[in-house]
Design a protein that fits this description.
Largest sheet: 6 strands, antiparallel
Strand content: 25-35%
Structural class: alpha+beta
CATH architecture of the largest domain: 2-Layer Sandwich
Order of helices and strands: EHEEEEEHEHEEEEEHEHEEEHE
Shape: globular
Bound molecules: flavin-adenine dinucleotide
Distance between the termini: 21 Å
Length: 316
Amino acid sequence: MSAHTTFKIGGPADFIVAPANFAELAACLRLFFDGGVPVSLIGGGSNLLVSDKGIRGAVISLAAFTAISRLPCDAAAPNEGSEAGRVLVRAEAGASMVDLTEWCASESLSGVERFAGLPGTVGGAVFMNARCYERSVSDVFRFAKVLSVSANGFQIVEKKFDSAEWGYKVSPFQARTGIDPLILGPGSTVVLAATFALSSGNEASIRAEMTGYARDREEKGHFRFPSGGSMFKNDRSFGKPSGKLIDEAGLRGFRIGDAQVAPWHGNFVINAGSARAADVRALVAAVKKRVFEATGFSMECEVIFAGDWSTDAAGE
Ligand SMILES: Cc1cc2nc3c(=O)[nH]c(=O)nc-3n(C[C@H](O)[C@H](O)[C@H](O)COP(=O)(O)OP(=O)(O)OC[C@H]3O[C@@H](n4cnc5c(N)ncnc54)[C@H](O)[C@@H]3O)c2cc1C
């Protein structure tokens, strides 16, 4: 899985499947569900720490689902009235956020500029309710075509935006019943395509804004080393970002094996060479403990720990 995560960490999956279309996806799911094979869903792997033992069963990638299009006016009916002047854009789950932002810029559509340079896919960003520069996916999300898994199989349904179901890094798609957060089971949803409400703008100014955000990421060292982005959520009740708490605990540069708190960013844990997942996990546990001792705050991981951790000694 190290080839499928931005951390470049993770042991082997038993097998990985990238269905070419919906019929293939449905056939794979039927086969695996009927055969009792665990099914893990990944997007761009940019928010994942996969264990050194890897993932048992099947890993499904929607990398082939990449279409992005403007919805014709009549398809916009569910949002008529409140959406006056908006343009609805539908993106399939496997499209990258970089491609979505580029596509919108080339169509002179404004609303997703702040996600320029965000690693990962549309499906992952919707699932995580990704947040960039004070803008969350939920600010532009309107509805999604989802595959809803139940004890009897699965069905395709449309899921409309309901503000009560969304929050900071929270989306209605996060209910997963298994021990492993990637594994699909009854109650899980797979986002197949999401529709966003944008507005008409000026391509040059949209692109200028996007370049500014992408440059800011570069300057903050987001891509200097492999990582999973921010390791901890920023809980507003702490009064400070997690990175600041980690800095104040003197942990910048703190290292276990090749897992390291980035010397330039307290909330980034990097793979400084050939870090093992167990090193990252031990580092995270140590950082959480030190911050808790210093402040009384228990930081919550944003990066998702996935795969088979059964024999690793380190605990979070
Ligand atoms: C350098 C760097 C910078 C980052 N900056 C930010 C940032 O500014 N803001 C931010 O919010 N995040 C940031 N991240 C984290 C990450 O990019 C986001 O969380 C991203 O949205 C995850 O998308 P993904 O496709 O990679 O999902 P993955 O990491 O592959 O999966 C994450 C979760 O989404 C689920 N999932 C994936 N696709 C689907 C689907 N189609 N349907 C249902 N569930 C699905 C997976 O099962 C998993 O539980 C950053 C990461 C890196 C490496």
